[in-house]
Amino acid sequence: MVISCAAVNCTNRQGKVDKAEISFHRFPMNNAGRLAKWEQAVRRENWMPNRYSFLCSRHFAPDCFKLRHKDQQRQLKDSAVPTIFDFTRKDRVSGGNLRKKLVSVGGAGVKEEEVAQCKRSITAESVGKKIWVFPELVGPPSEVGESSAPPPQVGPHQPTGEWSLGVAGGQEVFTPSSCSLIDALHSYSSVSRQERGRRGCASPKMAAPEACISHLLAATPGRRFHPKTKQEHLGFRRRKQAIQRHQLRRRARCLHAVLYVRKRRRLQEVTAAPLNPAVLALDWLLGSWESDEPGEGSFPTVPPFRYSETLLFTHVGQPVINFMFNAFHAESKKPLHRECGFIRLQPGTNRVAFIIAQNSGVVEIEEGELTSQQLTLQTHALARTSFAREPHVQQISRLFQLRSDGRLEQTVSMATGDHPLTQHLHITYRRSS
Question: What separation, in Å, do the N-terminal and C-terminal C-alpha atoms of the chain show?
Fold first, then answer.
């Protein structure tokens, strides 16, 4: 359920605003006196709050909240009542949000002179109303001395309105009233196609607004479609399903982009902390690394293979460095081996310890020495799950080295119960961030 603010002219909702700045508070359904004050303050007609009704924190004065720390959730006092609201009426026309759609019966585009004429026909009297103007559906200009009053009604469904000359005095423009436009829409939806065709024989001037409505509804992409045959029905269903799939893919891409941006922001906030002096000697490892070319793997019990890998070394200001290794198949990009853990340095020495957890069920501690920009590690302790697959790994040796061209090289050797320490992996990375 999406939580949104119930106040008038307030569009705040959960997920759309920053939760650190705006919080949402439920109506006090268990306190009748306080609930009545909230309802009176909201001033919404013909509306009753329920347990899913909320108000955002922008409608409460600062003294309505309890004292809290920055990392705590904002809470209201037991006597808090909202007092900050915006009850001004939104004028869509004056604000420039009125959307006008000009339609031509012949399907041709609207000329620039007609568009300019329609813009001039919206006067100060039309503020607050929705005006529909159809300048290209009128008859020939009236002659000099001829009255511009509309002819008498032809049928019960003919709309009422006003005919007037354009600004240039050339073409006549019919401006239907809002009530007549709504009546015409209702009559169009309730009358059969044959009867609409018979009513189209009315006078040209009076049939023009209904013809406009018919053309608008016929050109609306979302109107109801009634297939006649099974093939049409299947085709319609296929098109509808294709549109729905496209919309779902588009929403998924948008959601993925939003999550990616949030993840990057969190990573930037984490890495914004200053590096702890205890791990300053390992600053050359920090950042993201990607395999420059597919690495090579081999062992006496497995056939040779190629793989790609990404490395991520980060810190949060503590005397440790966090890391995560993700390996993928070189061609199919299928996930393979994963490792994550921490790197620690013994204070005052060049002794380094890797604490590693692998997705194969092995937990390992490797210790070694740091020499300039080269790191050599050997297994110090190793544990595995009781149902780990054989052959069991007995020892692992690692070598990290930063080359002069800025690339990082890793060599991994492995020993099992049946085979001595043998080179298992070799790969080169380039820094990506």
Answer: 38
- Examine residue 148 and state whether it is found in any structural domain, yes or no: no
Shared domain for 290 and 404, answered yes or no, is: yes
**CB 356, CB 335: distance < 8 Å:** no
Structural domain containing residue 364: 277-431
Say yes or no: 18 and 60 in one domain.
yes
Which of 11-15, 144-148, 394-398 comes out lowest in average pLDDT? 144-148
The total of other beta-carbon atoms located within 10 Å of residue 80's CB is: 19
Burial class (CB in 10 A: 0-12, 13-18, 19+), 352: buried
The answer to whether the CB of 425 falls within 8 A of the CB of 402 is: no
Domain limit, last residue, from 236, 254, 272: 272
My answer on whether 117 and 139 are in the same domain is: yes
Q: Stretch 76-96: mean pLDDT, rounded?
A: 76
DSSP, res 136: G
Cβ contacts of residue 383 below 8 Å, gap of 6+?
Answer: 362, 363, 364
In a domain, 95, yes or no: no
Beta bridge partners of 65: 76
Beta bridge partners of 367: 353, 378
As a whole number of angstroms, the distance between CA 317 and CA 314 comes to 10
Residue 318 within any structural domain of the chain: yes
Q: Which residue has better confidence, 253 or 145?
A: 253
The total number of structural domains that make up the chain: 4
Taking Cα atoms as reference points, which of 365, 336, 335 lies closest to residue 353? 365
Is 104 within a domain? Answer: no
Same domain, 190 and 299: no
Residue count of the chain, please give it: 433
Q: How far is 51 from 16, CA to CA, in rounded Å?
A: 21
Structure confidence by residue, pLDDT tens digits, 125-152:
444 444 444 444 444 444 434 444 444 4
| Distance from C-alpha of 162 to C-alpha of 126, rounded to nearest angstrom | 13
pLDDT value at residue 378: 93
